[in-house]
Every structure is written in C-alpha cells, then in structure tokens.
Design brief:
homodimer; alpha+beta; Butyryl-Coa Dehydrogenase, subunit A, domain 1; Butyryl-CoA Dehydrogenase, subunit A, domain 2; 5-stranded mixed beta barrel; 19 helices; globular; flavin adenine dinucleotide binding (chains A, B); oxidoreductase activity, acting on the CH-CH group of donors (chains A, B); Butyryl-CoA dehydrogenase (chains A, B); flavoprotein (chains A, B)
C-alpha cells in the first residue's frame, strides 16, 4: 500500500481557506512571495520527505542509536537525509533572504516542514531544536555570539540543544545544581550532569551548541539564581574552525520507547575541570531567556504530535479503504462479497475521531504559527501585541492538546487495523510509541495545566484570557446566522460554562489552600482545550460551508462534507465532555488532594 | 528500586474480604482446602514469579523471538522459567487432584497466577492458552482425544494454540478458506494459511496442539460451515511418543510492538499435500466449540490487561514515593527540601486513576472467576445456571473494560515517572506496549460491543441483562443505609439511565437500519462497563467500610481509607461520563453512520 503521508488537499484548505495565508503576501516582508512560491516550497518539502525520509522511516526506528563508549552511531542513512533538508533550504526557510533563507511566513514554514515531520518523525528534531536554539541566541545573545554560533547553525554546519534537566531535579528547575565559575577572560567553567538532552551527541554536524542552565557560584537559590550558557562540543577558533574538544562528555544514551530518530543523552560537563561556557545575556536571568526557546519548543512539540496523529490517520484511512472484511449487519447473506472496512460504522467512528483530533490539533498549531507571524509582521503595534498576547496565552494548550489527543488518535489508527496495526509491517505502532513522549517533554501536561490556570489566565488582569474569549465570540457571531447556527449555540454555551468555571476556581484561591484549588488543573486544561478545539472546528466548518457555496466539483464537495461531518463529530462526541470536567473544577473536588500517600 | 509487582494486601482483600473465597472450602470439591492452603499456593506463585520471571522481564522484551528459516529461537532463559511454573504445579492448579492438579477454585487459581501474569507478562500466555485449549478438548473432544492430547498438555509436555485468523479474513470468520478433506481413516487433511497464531511455534514443549478452524469441502458458506480440528505439530504414535512432523510449517514471525514473550506466527498448513487433522465433535459446529475456548481466552485477556495495569500502578507508586522533586504551591521557600512527588496533588490524581482502573478491573476479573466456580460447583442447579447466565453476559465487559482502561492506566504510570517512564530502564513503557494488544485480540472492542448490545442483552428474553441488573440492585440496597448511601444513590441513578438507554436503543431496531442503531455500540459498551465497575467499586467500598468497623491497626486503616478514596474517585471522576455516552446511544446519533467513505 502506497499511503500518502499527509493529505495535500487538507493542507491547502487549512493554509488558504481557513487561515488565508495568501494575504500575508501583502506584507512588505513577504512581498516577493505568492501562493505559487508558497506551494513550490511545500512541494520541495514533500519531495525531500518522500525521497529521503519515508524510505528509511522503519529503519530509523528499528536501528536505535548506539554508543560504543567513544562515539555515537546512528543509522548511516540519517545524515544524507538531514543534509538533504539543509541543502534544499528547508531547515529554516523562515529566515531572511540575506541570510540564505526563503523569508517565508511561519505558517507556511510549518506547512513546508509538515511532510518532513510526518515522514521523518523524530529525526526532524535535530533541525527544529537547532532552529529554536539559534532563535534564542539571536534574541538574547551578543552580536559576536550571533556571528559565532547562530550563523553556522543557520547554515546547517552546527546543531543545537537545550540542556536543562538534571538527574536529581527533573522538572523542578529550582533545584538544579550544575555550577558555573567565572574565569578571568569572562568565560565560565561549567560543571554538572544533564539528562534527557535530545540531540546531545551525534556526528551529523561539525559542532553541537548546548544551551545549558547552570548556577553561578553564590547565586540565589531557586529559579532566580539560574543563568544560561553556550557550551559547545568543540571550542571554536577565531577563524571559525573547530578547536579542541570541550570538556563535555557523553555519559550514555537512553533507550526510549519511541522517537529513535533523535538521540537522548546523558551529558557530563566538567569531568576534566570544567567545560568552557559563554554567558548569554546577564547572570541570573537564564530561565527567562530559556523560555524563549521553551515556548518555541512547546509549539514544536504540539506540531509534531498533531502531524504524527495526522499521518497515522491517513495511513489507517488508506488501509480501511482497501481492506475487505465482514459485512454490514443488515446483510445476512454469506454469499455476498465482504465490504471494505471503511464501510463499517464503528470503523468510520474511529476514523472520524482521528480526523477530528488530528485536523483539529494541526489547525490549532497552524493558528499558533499565524499568531507568531502576526507578532512579527502585522501592520500595527497594537495588532502585533494582540497576537503576542493570544499566542502566549494559548501556548500551554498548543503544547498539550495535540500531545494528549495525538497518541489517542494513533491508538485508534492501530485499532482500525487490528492485529496488522500492532506489528511493525506498518508504521502506526511506531507513531503510537513516538507520540507518547509528547505529553512529557518540554513541560508535562500537569505543568502546562498549572501554567494555564495559575499563570496565564490571571496574568495582566486576564488580558490573554479575555482576548482568546473575544476571538471565539467573534466566530460565534459569524456562525450564528449561518447553516452552522446550532454549533454556534453549543460553543456559546461552552464559553459561558468556561467563564463560570474560571470565576469559581480562581475565586476560591482567596480562601482555600492553593494546592487544593489547583488540584483539578488538568481537568481545567482539558476543558479549555476542548473549547478551543471546538472553536477551531467551527472555523473549519465555516470555511467548508463557504467552499460548498462556491458549487465545487464533486471531489471538493466530498472534502467539504467530510470537514463538516468531522466538525459535527467533535461537537457531539467531544465538546459535551467539558461539563463533566467543569463540575470537578468548579466544585473544587478534593478527592486527589485529600488522598494521603500512606493510603495508596 | 525493588518494587513489588503486586500488592499482597490488596490481593488478600479481594479474595477474602470482597469475594469470601474461604467460603468455597465448604463445597465438597474444595473440602481439603483452607485459607492456609490457598495462601500457600499463592505464595508459591509469587516465589516462582520472583525467582524465574522478574529477573528476565526486560530481556524477554528486548530479545524478540527470531526465526532462522528452520527454527524459532527464544531467549534461552524462557524455557527454564516456563518449566518452573509447570514443575511447581502452577500451570493448571485448578485441575483434579487425581490428574495431578491442586483442585483449587478458579478464583484462587486466578490469584495464584496473578504474580506470574504480572511478572511474566506475555510469556505466561504459553501456559494459559494451553489450558484453554485443553479445556475445549476436554469439553467437546472424544475420550481418546482427551487421553491423547489433553493429558500431555496438563502434564506440561505439550502446549496448545487457537488457530482462527486468516490473512484474507481477519475477524470475519465467515470468510475463512482453510479447507479440510476427509480421508478414509476418518482423519482429515488440512490446507490453508493462518496468521497471528500466538505460540504457534517454539521448542518449549515436545509438541504443539493447534486447534484449527477449517471448512470441510462442500460445507455451507459462512459461519455455519466451519469445523474444528486438532492439528498437531508432530503426529503422535500409539505409545504417545512423537511421530513424524506434520505438514504444518512456520511461514514467519510477526514483529509485535509488545508481548514479545509470546511468539506470534504465520502458519502454513498442507504445503506438502495436507496436514493431518482430527475432527473435534461434529462437522460444521466448529465455531460453537471454539467459543468455549474463546470465552475463556476473553476472560484471560481481561485478566492479563488488569494485572498489567496493576503492576504498572504499583511500580509508578513505588517510584513516586521515593522520587523527590519540586514543592507544593503553598510553599514559596526555595531553601526548603523538595518533596516526594507522591505529595503533588496531580501525581496523586494519576495514581488514584490507575488504582481506580486497575483494582476495579482486576476485581471484575476475579468476580468472573468466582462466577466460573459457581457455574461448576455451586450447590444447586439453579445457582449454577444463574452463575452461567451472569458470566456469559459479562464476558464482553470482562474482556474489554480492562483492555481499554488497562493501557490508559499504564500511560499514566509513564506520566507519573516523566522521562524516566519513557525509557527502558523501567518496565512501565513495556507494560504500555504489551497492554495495547488487549483491545485487539480475541475479538476487538468493537466486536465485544456488538456482542453485548446485539446479542447478550436481548438473549433469552433479557435473562442475563436482568440478572446483572438485579445483582447491582442488591448491592445498592445493601449500601443505601450505610456510610456509602450517597454512592448507592449515584449508582441507582446510573442504573436507571442504563435501563432507559437500553430500551431506547433496542426499541429503535424495530424501525431503523440496524447498522445505524448499533453504530454507537462502543459507547453503549463504555457505559455498561463503567456502571459495572462502579458497582464493583461500591462492593469494594462496602468491604472496606466493614474493615474499618473492625477497628483495624493503622496500616490496615490506611489501606481501607485508600480503597474508599479510590471508590470516591471512580464515582466522581468516572461514573458521570456515562451520561455523555448514553445521550449518543439513546438519540441514535448518526454522525458515524452518515459519514461516507468518499468524504474522508
């Protein structure tokens, strides 16, 4: 079966009909672009994915990286594939023409890289993390640091990592113990251990730029005493060539359930006296800088989760269309031919669920990219600030919703295919394993939920919260007098429930223990996420409805009807779940809080 | 960390406080037994599990079986471990003393084998499938067949399989094409291909007894033309010794995501002219016989899923108790020591959810074993018939509820452990992979849902349905005047909703297309399953409440409080979900049914 990895029709729908990416060409930065140049870039992304990554997808998974005590060994086919991405200009197509980029909007960049994410799964992480690393240094580093580290990363000669987690601290960054000592020449010596560092060692690039969180001796305890350092694998000479090996050693590789395209490493800094590190910005402000990268990484995680869900959906759909088995209940004639399983209502349910989850999740991620574009290039300062506010607020949802529902979609891809989905003859079991990392890294779902309810909602006098609600309200108004008025009503009711719940839970913080009040924060995140996805689906429904008004040809008509049916599915089978979650949150259900460790 | 695989306190609670297994010793068959003999057998199970299986658990997973074109190679440590089970008499401890068994009740057998399931995960499948195979032949085979095949299986010299699935038919048994031709000597020659045959080849036993579904030439189409055959790997001589190799060839092994302790095979029957097969019972009644084994296998699947969930819960709990990280929100002092993560309310939520799922699921499976005991040894014919009715009705729920919620529990075990849960240093990622098979094999969740709603509910004038409801009602009456009256009220309301939903959906079959009416059958199964588990939890709550009345020592008091808290968790965070499912079912929501293949 030659399944396509993604639906191009759907990608075009989201880009041009849902988010009107073409209108970005009116902005000065994108004036040289047109739908044709956007599509050409997307086509290039697809070509590289199909030629270099799809053929090795299974091998990457079955040939886990190994460490011989000296060097890491990856499947040899990975390097030429990664090089092909870089050579085609797909590693950072959003960067300026003058820096060798394509100067594409971020929403288009997302679509250009979609085929790569879908086909290369986690291997693409080398490239996306490098970008996020370069963006951080560009934003917070000195001009010399940009020249020395960002430039070779943009050119694909260096790669980058984010080194936060430590064996003793995990998500509790306040307790990290890696230390930095200032030397006379202004550099620092870094000593400590980091774990779960993705891409922390390999030979895909000439050098690896680690961004390391560490504590300068004498710094305050907690997160206010954390600084950020550039710590390269190899020191770099004046002329840009590699100097001696820095005091950064690979302590080991982790054997992960999935995501085997991307090494996960334990790194030792300073076993021989101290790794040379260069301070980014000022001391003790490291965590703030790191959030620049982390926010970007969180959106990347959501995008990867959504695309893994989408490609699993596509694969199981193609399978269901070609696999004959069984008959409808209404047909009692054993002499009749078996039907393809896509005809069975329960298989359709599993496909519709995947469609609703995956297309809802990916549309949300593209919306995030659109906001990131507006943040940078919208016409007025007010529009740019508004986009920033929306994106900042939505980040925990963009990170966690696809991460939670992507694996569920992949589980249904397995289920559609039955025993065939459980074996590695087909890639859906790999998608299921790969996607399971996403609710964990870059801040677990629990951490995202506290970020949303405890921080993002009340922040700046509820500015982000109100802004997101206003956006949703606007779509409701638009849908109220359309064919979709029933759905507009459902979303309106959901919005009211969300507001009541928010008031109730935050109101309770005045009088109750915060650990009790926030103990249902994941239910709050679930609720908010479902409302946002329902809103995204209503927007997709409106765009599909508009498409139908244009008397499309048969194939397009089918496509639009499918969108409307998936929207209906989400509204009937998913959105009502929020009332259950809201009850727990509103009533400050204390079951988890009251449970004592000794009772387990 | 030396985590125990299962909680012995909980096992004792379920056996003796919840299901009063000790009372079985009053029945003549178990008169030689006592709680002491039961506990000794359980202790033996644990000893073998700890000594032989826990140490090789990870190796079994990372050393997948291989096939060199001639022979299957398993990890060598598997055979001595399996032999240890057989030598300790743990393979079929329920069989008669005179056949070398321990003549234990099935509910005790389940507990005896629990440690083995939890530690040996899927390796234990060789033994349990052999048992189910032997039980089928014992029930439906001739005395000669019992002597020739069952005896060596009981002794552990032979093992057994169930060979149903074919490449072209999958779950659609009506279309299976394996053929059988009758020979003059009364035996048959079998020709065809089977896939996904668990334990279909290995060298753990002297011989392998395949139970093969095939179609005798000229038989009717569909399921009414299927017969059942014993097809051994080696023919057996008059004296019981192995004769020549039968015409059964291993065509290949499947590479499964999990469950690697148990080979999954493609088998070719009759490549050299026809495999010798022996008819079980009469021609064309094969599927009915196979259901004897399949029903047993379905309960086994549920049990395995529940125990994999339980052991994952236990593992993540032990981890959470020992892993310091972060502080409570109420504590703003970075100088204070980090707390163990079990103190964080969201971690408690994830542990409570696992506890509610896993202990609920396993208690249901033990209840199934209790019914199987009653079916055989209850005092009166009426009691035995009643137990049969209940068990037959509940089988799709016992199969599917643990299979659906077990993997969700295992996902939470990963989440509790964060990045450490995603790597193979700890077994929870393996549990997650292993458990994912359970919603697929022995009838997918979709098939179970149609069996429940389309067959089991209306069967015999709703006899099973009414019987199960009456059992639940009885518990409600018992709880109504207790401390647990609020929960009794919730369950009463749920029962009424279930009845209304059942009437509405079955009423609709009179006028609507059955494929539409049954298109929400999985939601019906979800609903019924949740009501049954809530009932099982109310029973656990009553038993815990009774325990508290006895003024227990501190450790027991904690245990009972934990049970009550998990019950409360299930009633507040899970049971209310049924109202969402019931709405879809009652209203015959047509979203999935209406979705057309070309719209995807």
């Amino acid at each position: 079966m030659a399944a396509q990895a993604l639906s191009e029709r759907d990608l075009a729908f989201m880009l041009y009909e849902l988010f009107d990416a073409e209108s970005l060409t009116k902005r000065p930065r994108y004036a040289d672009h047109s739908r044709e140049t956007f599509d050409a870039a997307i086509e290039t992304g697809k070509t590289v994915a199909v030629k270099h990554f799809l053929p090795i997808r299974q091998q990457v998974d079955t040939n886990e990286p190994t460490f011989d005590g000296e060097r890491v060994h990856l499947l040899p086919e990975i390097k030429p594939a990664v090089d092909a991405v870089i050579e085609a200009g797909l590693a950072a197509p959003e960067t300026d023409f003058e820096d060798g980029g394509m100067q594409l909007p971020l929403i288009v960049t997302n679509a250009v890289q979609a085929h790569l994410w879908a086909a290369a799964s986690t291997t693409f992480g080398y490239i996306s993390l490098t970008n996020a690393n370069a963006n951080l240094i560009e934003a917070h580093g000195s001009p010399e640091q940009v020249e020395k580290w960002v430039k070779p990363m943009r050119e694909g000669r260096f790669m980058g990592t984010m080194a936060m987690t430590e064996p003793g601290a995990g998500s509790g960054l306040a307790d990290l113990t890696t230390t930095a000592t200032r030397e006379e020449d202004g550099s620092y010596r870094i000593t400590g251990n980091k774990i779960f560092i993705s891409g922390g060692d390999h030979e895909l690039s000439d050098n690896i730029v680690h961004l390391v969180l560490a504590r300068v001796k004498g710094a305050p305890k907690g997160v206010k005493g954390i600084s950020l350092f550039i710590v390269p694998k190899f020191l770099v000479n004046e002329d840009g060539s590699n100097g001696e090996r820095n005091d950064v050693a690979l302590a080991g590789l982790f054997h992960k359930m999935g995501g085997r395209g991307h090494t996960s490493t334990a790194l030792s800094f300073g076993e021989k006296g101290g790794a040379v590190g260069y301070l980014v910005g000022e001391e003790n402000r490291g965590l703030m800088y790191m959030f620049h990268m982390m926010n970007e990484a969180r959106i990347m995680v959501g995008t990867g989760a959504a695309l893994t869900a989408l490609t699993g959906y596509q694969y199981s759909l193609d399978y269901a269309r070609e696999r004959p088995q069984g008959r409808l209940l209404a047909n009692k004639d054993p002499e009749s031919a078996p039907i393809n399983i896509v005809e069975h209502p329960d298989v359709r349910r599993m496909l519709l669920t995947q469609k609703a989850y995956a297309e809802g999740a990916y549309a949300l991620c593209l919306y995030g990219s659109q906001l990131a574009d507006d943040e940078k290039t919208a016409e007025t300062e007010a529009e740019r600030a508004h986009a920033h506010t929306l994106l900042d607020f939505l980040t925990p949802i963009i990170k966690s919703w696809p991460s939670e529902y992507g694996p569920q979609a992949n589980s249904l891809a397995i289920q559609v295919m039955g025993g065939h989905g459980y074996i590695n003859e087909h890639p859906v079991e790999m998608f299921y394993r790969d996607n399971r990392l996403n609710p964990i890294h870059e801040g677990t779902t629990g951490i995202q939920s506290l970020d949303l309810l405890g921080r993002k909602v009340p922040m700046n006098k509820f500015a982000g919260y109100r802004a997101v609600l206003a956006e949703m309200q606007q779509t409701i108004e638009q849908a109220r007098d359309s064919e979709l008025s029933l759905f507009a009503g459902d979303l309106q009711a959901a919005l009211e429930e969300l507001q009541q719940t928010t008031s109730a839970v935050l109101g309770a913080t005045a009088e109750k223990n915060p650990d009790l009040v926030f103990s249902n924060s994941v239910s709050y995140l679930e609720m908010f996420g479902h409302v946002v996805i329902a809103w995204i689906w209503l927007r997709q429904g409106l765009a599909a409805d508009a498409g139908l008004q244009r008397n499309p040809h048969a194939e397009d008509e089918h496509f639009y009807r499918g969108k409307l049916q998936a929207m209906q599915y989400f509204f009937r089978s998913e959105l009502p779940k929020i009332y259950h979650w809201s009850k727990l949150v509103k009533e400050i259900d204390s079951t988890s809080f009251d449970m004592r460790p000794e009772w387990f």
